[in-house]
Specification:
Length: about 110
Amino acid sequence: MTKPKKHPWRNTIVTLAFLLPIAAVVIYNSFQVSDYECTVCMSFFGREACRTVNAKTEKEGVAAAIDNACALLASGVTDTMRCQRTTPTKAECRSLLAGGTERPTLGTF
């Protein structure tokens, strides 16, 4: 005969104690307000794509927009890396904070 479990709720408490902090971090990070909106246009092998992203910093915004634009323009790892190293034809970021103004980040090439 098997012994009845003394505390069947123990596993539930341990699971919740583990998962609740993880869920809290995910929810907290998803509601973080971005400080910048960046628009980047890339030209690669005769094709052009522009993407706009929101990010915490200008550097992150430009990098994310380049990655997004290159995802449309390149196929394969080698082409994607080559595209990401290409100078954008347009890169502008604007602050989303009160009183923010639009200004070129990398300029228009």
